[in-house]
Structure formats: C-alpha cells, structure tokens
Amino acid sequence: MLADLDDLNDLTTLDGLNRAYIDSVLNGDVARFEQLLADDFLCSNPDGSLIDRAAFLRQTAAPRSLTALRADDVRVRVFGPVAIIHGRTAFETVDGRHGSGRYTDVWEKRGGEWRAVAAHVTRL
After folding, report:
1. pLDDT tens for residues 23-51?
2. Strand, helix or coil at 29?
3. SS3 state of residue 93
4. CA atoms of 92 and 31, how far apart (whole Å)
5. Which backbone phi and psi does 91 adopt, to 5 degrees?
6. How crowded is residue 71: how many other Cβ atoms within 10 Å of its Cβ?
C-alpha cells in the first residue's frame, strides 16, 4: 500500500508542477522556471528548433506573445523516477489570434525532487 501512496503523491506533485509550468509560460516567469528545469533541460520548439536551458530561459524572458494559455486533456504517467506529461493547449496571442497545440514534457526525480528534463511543443 505504501507504493500506491507514493504513486499518488507523485501524481499530485506532478499535476501541480505541470500547472506551474503552464503558468510560467504564460507569465514569462523565469525565476520559477529556474526552479523547475534541470540543468540539462532541452526543449523542441514549435518551429523545430532544439534549445537548451539557457536559451529557454532567454526565450521565456522575451516580451510576452500570449495573453491566455490553458492546458486540457492532461495525462501524467509515472515510470519510477521518470514521468511523462502529455497535454493539449489553447491559447490567445497578444494580437488576438486563437490557437491550439499539444505538448509532451519529461520529468525526472533527482535527489527527491522532480525536474523537467525535456519538453516538446507543437502548435496546430
């Protein structure tokens, strides 16, 4: 039964981290991302570029392009010290355009803390 409790705790933690990640994208919260991202984090952007943690933080600090961002259909799967989060997004840009996309984030439990190690973002 202890393993089930650990799994439930991880799912709850990862759900909260996913919400923090989405909020940080919307609000350009570099400080929060510095807490969430592993040092070896990589992100595949919608334009096909692959960027490291430093470039992601610079991208996050750039002027905001979104006025709204919502995640739906979020699925969290835990495989021991690794978790994969899939989700669908709906967003609105500063010029009023609406769009949607999907994302996949990979998290790893390091030193007892979950850290994002990879992200892949697709815009439809």
Report:
1. 999 999 999 999 999 999 999 999 999 99
2. coil
3. strand
4. 23
5. -145, 165
6. 19
pTM of this structure: 0.92
Cβ(99)–Cβ(24) below 8 Å: no
Distances (CA, A) of 78 to 36, 109, 113: 17, 10, 14
Q: What is the DSSP letter of 105?
A: E
Rounded CA-CA distance 101/122 in Å is 5
Q: How far, in Å, are 80, 81, 96, 110, 112 from residue 121 at the CA level?
A: 24, 23, 20, 23, 27
What gap in Å lies between CA 41 and CA 10, rounded to an integer?
A: 20
Say what the alpha-carbon torsion angle 27, 32, 37, 38 is, to the nearest 10 degrees.
Answer: 160
1 confidence band (pLDDT: 50, 70, 90): very low
> What is the phi/psi pair of residue 113, to 5°?
-120, 140
pLDDT digits (tens, 9 = 90+) for 51-68: 999 999 999 999 999 999
